[in-house]
Amino acid sequence: MTWLQRYRFRNFLRSSVWLPPLLGILAALLVNQLMQSADRLWGWHGAASVSGSQGVLTALASSMLTFIVFVFSILLLVVQLASAQLTPRVIAFFYRSRILKLSLTLFVFVFTFNLAVLARIGDSIPALSVRLAAYGSLAAIGVFLYMIETVGKSLRPVTVLTGVGRTGSAVIDSVYPHPATPAGSAPGSREAMPTGECRRTVLNVRPGVVLAFDSEGLAVRAKHADCLIELVPQVGDFVAQGDPLFRLYGGDVGDRDLQQAIAIGPERTMEQDPAFAFRIIVD
After folding, report:
1. Which candidate among 31, 36, 80, 92 keeps its CA 20 to 30 Å from the CA of 165?
2. What's the pLDDT tens digit per position in 12-66?
3. What's the CA gap between 101 and 170, in Å, rounded?
4. Contacts by 61-70 with C-beta closer than 8 Å and gap 24+?
5. What gap in Å lies between CA 278 and CA 67, rounded to an integer?
6. What percent of the chain has pLDDT over 90?
């Protein structure tokens, strides 16, 4: 897997809203099978009536479905409020909210598990599974209350600015790990711009914004090819199709290797772009 593929996969996991609930469904079906085996192994049966247990599980499943719809509604409301009152550039932060993903995953898990247990009730009641469904619903209510409080506080401008500032500071530390010094005064420093004749220029094939690049991978390729690789645009710059992307001095590196070492997308991110944090704060 190339660096670009790993980058896209990592961002997909961070930004995906539907993947955690889908995993919650699969986990609920798996836990249902385990509980079914445990009920058969230990022979536990509930003392409640079959109709009463079915009614309780039906009510719990209905409440979990209501929670799921409510969480999606909150997510859409948060996006609208953030776009109108703050800035559209903070929408990505809300889609990556762990609290929303955890809440939605738990609700979907409990809903699926309750339906699976409800389908298993026949002449006898699987006591262990019914108890797990009931306690899971109680836990979901607690998570729901915590989610409401967290989402309400996350919409405050001071909370958004604090989060953006904290993330921006971490990005600055990662992109610029060494303190600033006058040009040429750092030990082992050399000219920032390459000297000599450019051997080849690699052009951009897809328009978009430069999101990040694999600095370590490019350094390894440059060392193996005995050349110097210049990344023409900065992270956060827009590049059109046909714009220069890399310039090679000395040896040569394949176009595909270079294209797989840089991520280009529709909008800026803060992963390697500290200036984007200042842009959000200005907005």
Report:
1. 80
2. 888 888 899 899 999 999 998 888 888 777 766 555 567 777 888 888 888 888 8
3. 23
4. 61/111, 61/114, 61/115, 61/118, 63/137, 64/107, 64/108, 64/110, 64/111, 64/114, 64/137, 64/140, 65/111, 67/103, 67/107, 67/140, 67/144, 68/21, 68/104, 68/107, 68/108, 68/111
5. 36
6. 25
Instruction: Write a three-state SS string for 59-86.
Output: HHHHHHHHHHHHHHHHHHHHHHHHHHHH
Structure tokens at 9: 């996969």
Place of tokens 């009510």: 59
What whole-number distance in Å separates Cα of residue 274 and Cα of residue 118?
A: 52
Amino acid at site 131: R
Residue 82's nearest CA partner among 71, 93, 73, 72 is: 93
Residues 6 or more apart whose CB falls under 8 angstroms from that of 2 comprise: 260, 261
Dist. CA 91–CA 161, nearest whole Å: 13
- Evaluated on CA atoms 34, 36, 37, 43, the torsion sign reads positive
Task: Enter the tokens of residue 275.
Answer: 């200036």
Beta strands 238-239 and 262-265, pairing class: unpaired
Strand order from edge to edge, sheet including 244-250 = 200-203, 244-250, 227-231
Decide if 24 contacts 112 (C-beta within 8 A). Answer: yes
At position 250, the amino acid (one-letter code) is: G
Whether residue 109 is predicted with pLDDT greater than 70 in this model: the reply is yes
- State both tokens at 213: 């690049």
Residue 208's identity, in one-letter code, is: G
Tell me the C-alpha distance between 225 and 219, whole Å: 10
pTM of the model: 0.79
